[in-house]
What we know:
The complex is a heterodimer.
Chain A: H1 24-29, E1 41-50, E2 53-59, H2 63-69, E3 76-77, E4 84-85, E5 98-101, E6 108-112, E7 122-125, H3 140-143, H4 152-156, H5 162-175, E8 190-202, H6 206-218, E9 222-225, H7 235-238, E10 241-242, E11 245-246, H8 247-260, E12 264-267, E13 270-276, E14 280-285, E15 301-313, E16 317-319, E17 332-334, H9 335-343, E18 352-357, H10 360-371, E19 375-380, H11 391-397, E20 401-402, E21 405-412, E22 415-423, E23 426-431, E24 434-438, E25 441-443, H12 446-449, E26 456-458, E27 463-465, E28 473-475, H13 485-502, E29 535-537, E30 542-543, H14 544-552, H15 558-565, H16 578-589, H17 593-596, H18 610-614, E31 626-627, H19 631-636, E32 640-644, E33 647-652, H20 661-674, E34 677-680, E35 685-690, H21 694-701, E36 714-720, E37 726-736, E38 739-744, H22 749-763, E39 770-773, E40 778-784, H23 788-795, E41 812-816, E42 822-826, E43 835-841, H24 845-856, E44 862-863, H25 866-876, H26 908-911, E45 922-929, E46 941-944, E47 956-964, E48 969-977, E49 986-991, E50 996-1003
Chain B: E1 2-5, E2 9-12, E3 17-21, H1 37-49, E4 57-63, E5 71-77, E6 83-88
Amino acid sequence: xxxxxxxxxxxxxxxxxxxxxxxxxxxxxxxxxxxxxxxxxxxxxxxxxxxxxxxxxxxxxxxxxxxxxxxxxxxxxxxxxxxxxxxxxxxxxxxxxxxxxxxxxxxxxxxxxxxxxxxxxxxxxxxxxxxxxxxxxxxxxxxxxxxxxxxxxxxxxxxxxxxxxxxxxxxxxxxxxxxxxxxxxxxxxxxxxxxxxxxxxxxxxxxxxxxxxxxxxxxxxxxxxxxxxxxxxxxxxxxxxxxxxxxxxxxxxxxxxxxxxxxxxxxxxxxxxxxxxxxxxxxxxxxxxxxxxxxxxxxxxxxxxxxxxxxxxxxxxxxxxxxxxxxxxxxxxxxxxxxxxxxxxxxxxxxxxxxxxxxxxxxxxxxxxxxxxxxxxxxxxxxxxxxxxxxxxxxxxxxxxxxxxxxxxxxxxxxxxxxxxxxxxxxxxxxxxxxxxxxxxxxxxxxxxxxxxxxxxxxxxxxxxxxxxxxxxxxxxxxxxxxxxxxxxxxxxxxxxxxxxxxxxxxxxxxxxxxxxxxxxxxxxxxxxxxxxxxxxxxxxxxxxxxxxxxxxxxxxxxxxxxxxxxxxxxxxxxxxxxxxxxxxxxxxxxxxxxxxxxxxxxxxxxxxxxxxxxxxxxxxxxxxxxxxxxxxxxxxxxxxxxxxxxxxxxxxxxxxxxxxxxxxxxxxxxxxxxxxxxxxxxxxxxxxxxxxxxxxxxxxxxxxxxxxxxxxxxxxxxxxxxxxxxxxxxxxxxxxxxxxxxxxxxxxxxxxxxxxxxxxxxxxxxxxxxxxxxxxxxxxxxxxxxxxxxxxxxxxxxxxxxxxxxxxxxxxxxxxxxxxxxxxxxxxxxxxxxxxxxxxxxxxxxxxxxxxxxxxxxxxxxxxxxxxxxxxxxxxxxxxxxxxxxxxxxxxxxxxxxxxxxxxxxxxxxxxxxxxxxxxxxxxxxxxxxxxxxxxxxxxxxxxxxxxxxxxxxxxxxxxxxxxxxxxxxxxxxxxxxxxxxxxxxxxxxxxxxxxxxxxxxxxxxxxxxxxxxxx
Amino acid sequence: xxxxxxxxxxxxxxxxxxxxxxxxxxxxxxxxxxxxxxxxxxxxxxxxxxxxxxxxxxxxxxxxxxxxxxxxxxxxxxxxxxxxxxxxxxxxxxxxxxxxxx
Lengths: 1017, 102
């Protein structure tokens, strides 16, 4: 164990260049800090506060190690019983020492003190207690614990059912729980990034370093991820000798060599949390969690997606607790964690330490305590004799070794005061302030099991080892059940070399490093059967008796055990409790552990903040925006925008003095109906269809025909899905013999393009036809109203004839604009007025909007938004999204007559099915209220007059609703059973959600200009 | 996960969308088909709705909408999600008259 006289930190921790000389007094205040050793920087003292109390630590400390160094035992209250809890581990598996970090908007709940690096000015506080950690009022729960057993909530708060949501659950949630969130927007930025490599190495202990070195030397592109701030894994805590040198010297040599290889990237503070299909890994880099707040333009955390061809997982093993009464008292710690605090952080967790171990590894903690000059109160080893390797130590140090079990731990909020040890039939009390316990080691099989690989039981180490790993993954070292240092070096090297070779790397990996192969022996001891509360899951307060209760009540399968007791369901996902819990279940059932099996492992391995998963996709960047070509012009005019899919469309253009949207919309509609207005319709999907067979192609995808459409003409078309339901509608123009331009609705532009490509590429590759999306290429404006032609005359070149004869309804052609630019002009109308759509290349869209305003100025032109567009289409009875709802047929929409009988088309045969032709289907009709002052609301149900509203009497609902400025009352389109036969019938409209009930008349869906004379004028 | 588009190379799976089983063949019936209406409806019904729920290798349609807009036919294992092969649909890429349909 040489190498602990090092005072210089390894890895990334900055040295204290230029800082003031060490603050001796602050070091002196650290009651449990060792005078020498550790990988802390004694030249860099740091001040921090916990629960308002100011303390000091050193650079290289975690919050947990600094608390240990300051003699702090009590750091938390437990989830359910509010029992006092301390620091249990020294790693990311920590179940107990969860704290609230920072204050204000940066406050973060449930941070593991064991992974939080100390920084100057760090502020942390305990959670789940009131009014204070020492005097927690809710600790009364602990007195009530006999009734708070597993399943208690289910059994007790069942009746009356309505009390659950309003009364029981909020009360329980207040009493049980962990930290509190900031309730403020997170001011920090989070990033997402991709990384690619040949070999991903997870973990930087002896195994990971050997693998990275072997793969890196061979020439593979390697990424090495380490969740800790320092590279080295257990080497930082356990030392040892490798290749004849102190482990830390070897560590420095290897990290130097890896740093010199350009094909190797080392990522510290980066936890790999999941493995996904195709060799993708998720990893979270805690870029700036170790400083008070990120520097300007820096991110707090970064979510990595790492694409790799092979992976070597050297994630180590996690020490498991023994279940005995009082095993959750502050001061009961994992044996290896005690070693870490002593060796790595020079912090002694107790003045008089007892060790309770069923395996040889616990004895290494005994050795570490002795070496550091600490006092061993006793070593309790139920196996009855001292392992051979430690006999000399036991003799030399005069250790009190007891062949028994710890049956009770006494103490208070300040931690352990004494333990009771049973040896045979006698018991004795031993004074101690820290009990180091080890129940053995569980290989960290999580990553190997995320693709449902079931771990397998290995009797000799009494632990689960990886089963079938995801493709390309090699488990190595302790994570694979090879627990000795030499085995880690050897298997890590072999795995790295193999992974590199499999990716085609040709270089030489060299030889594996060597270490003395220490023995590991264990005699399983899961639970000390003695009276008292003995914890299995420390974070969720699940006790051994909860597990046996679950068994008695029939929840025997491990998955049921988990749900019934919540074992392993907390933020630590049972890293140090799951295996123990199922071992106790196996014992209760009289089955073997192998037969009992494990629950299914799922990512993430470690908690990932939602902020990191969201990255920059928040607030206004939640999704991408698509702006119409006239967007900036519309924004200049104060347009109100609405999100339609990714598009931002002008909804209406309020004028000064207008206070209500309806006021603006009415004005816009009347301006169009009586004069002229225009609207940006560029968002409609546009698909260019070209080729000798373009007409045939369109005949097959639309219910109506297009091959006989004359060049220079447009036609409305309706397309069905294969199942006979309407997919989309829009106009198609024939620009040349072999060139059509098809339009889709805004919402369906993508899906329709995909569908058309499927038809072309998969169904009918023999057709000579090509498709290309032209939605983004054109800025298109609808100009509508009786004065449209007057406006156009000011817009187009005088040589262009836009008279009714020269440019009839449904005509299409290219025109020359004034100033010499070409545009496409379509005489189509959605509003029912005489209307043209004019299209120019998208980059001229904004200029075009300004030109239309100018050309229309003498006629009082107004821009109108999507609301006015919607009002006019409802007045005109045109169907849109609310009617094309994925359930309606062409005849439901009143468009059945369009279907050609002379050709086959997609959806033809399925549309002919009996139910889709049934006479009692709900079809599109108009609805007007009997009381003309009545406001209609979409979604209201239609029932016969005099009927009691209900599922049996429901006959349809209002799909589209608007106030008609022309009729001066509200109108609606509706889908109503047998609607077309019932024109003139008075029906009852029921809206139980809004508590409305009134009468209305079924009418024709065309409220405005039913003869269509205006659009043809 | 990446999918090897025959036109674009290996691309992230988020660029692609999935349609489903590529084995059903679309029946073609002219409006004056001599087949009985029941026969026609059954054939089209099977094409539209009937799918085997394969656990294992399956030929599937995928669409590279975030790239070249090609329809692809992939052989994929529905249990492991492993792609065995990815080929272009017969009409993907430039149109060539006279190709056989899927």
